[in-house]
Amino acid sequence: MIYLDNAATSFPKPEGVYREMDHFARTSAANPGRGGHRRAVEAEAMIEETRRLLARLFNAPRPERIVFGHNATDGLNMAIKGVLRPGDHAITSVLEHNSVSRPLNRLEQEGAITLTRLPATADHFLDPDAVARAWTPKTRLVAITHASNVTGTIQPVAAIGRIVRDRGGLLLVDAAQSAGVVPIDLQREPIDLLAFTGHKGLLGPTGVGGLFVGERAEVRTWREGGTGGDSTQPVQPDEFPHHLEGGTPNVIGLAGLRAGLRLVLERGVESILTHERAMLREFQKATRRPDRLSWYGADRVLADCNGDGRVGLLGLNVAGFAPAEVGAILDERFDIAVRPGLHCAPYAHRHLGTFPQGTVRLSVGILTTVEQIRQAAAAFDELTA
Ligand SMILES: Cc1ncc(COP(=O)(O)O)c(C=O)c1O
Known about the structure:
Elements: E1 2-3, H1 15-27, H2 38-58, E2 66-69, H3 72-83, E3 89-93, H4 98-109, E4 114-118, H5 128-134, E5 139-145, H6 157-166, E6 170-174, E7 193-197, E8 209-213, H7 251-267, H8 269-286, E9 293-296, H9 299-304, E10 313-318, H10 323-334, E11 336-337, E12 339-341, H11 346-352, E13 359-363, H12 370-384
Parallel strand pairs: 1-11, 3-4, 3-5, 5-6, 6-7
Antiparallel strand pairs: 2-8, 7-8, 9-10, 10-13, 12-13
Helix pairs in contact: 1-7, 2-7, 3-4, 5-6, 8-12
This protein binds pyridoxal-5'-phosphate.
């Protein structure tokens, strides 16, 4: 099987991730902080190490400001619903995944907030000046993706963050497609809230993710419950990470994430990104009839700049075939896994002009090989022949 759906979830996971989860499940997966015994202490220590590894990866000032949840969706909902107050204005963009768009749309529909959705440029980037132009005295939050899961373009989050900070607002960055693939420096870049998922570029299993909460952001408690520590307080404590972490965490998932993070840190984010861009270039080079494919995403960026400015995914369409048909043929005839459709990002496809059918997304990962890419290019050649 050739797996080119890493933007949905990375697969297979590196062997070390499977081994660590299996080992942890059998030896130490007790309830962290909920018992004084050795296994509970080991589980707690593993979670704190996972937090420290994430803090190292993102250069976060304080590990405890990284809170764990189920996925990026959880982190984004926590941030959006925990920060915005009735009467606020928020700014977002057409490039967003539904996990940003839907919570914001819901608040807007309920009349709680007003919302501005910024367009993208013809090259599929956001213009920082557009954020400045959309600003109102009521603007509290700017919520944008770091890398689009449809076009692959990496957005100028630092430039946008400077504008947001100058005006006293908060910047929420959706790092679902960038964490583990694009360098992120939370001490240098003006990012107040960063949502991440554990199962894509961080190489962990599904079911783990979360949110970094900077000092400037006040996020209301999300789910209240047991923290394993001080049980005497009538409501969720103010201290991080417990303020936003209630209930038993996904201990085995976090053990897998720890193993994934170690691999990412060992290999280095820049080296992973270089590999992924090289795989995209290989695909472009290997297709014999590139003119018979419609290439979506930052075409100029890919053609002129060796893929700088984008992560390892491509949107394509084949003339005469619906994206869903291409996906089915690749799966059934060639055993190649890709993701056709709207990729949970309907506004991005409206921007591209590919709504409602979408595109065929090919997304590479740390384990993708040149040979696999050449086979995938050959399959597209057969389809376009
Ligand atoms: C840009 C973007 N944001 C958010 C998400 C949501 O991630 P999760 O499903 O892990 O919550 C995804 C997942 O595909 C994504 O690509």
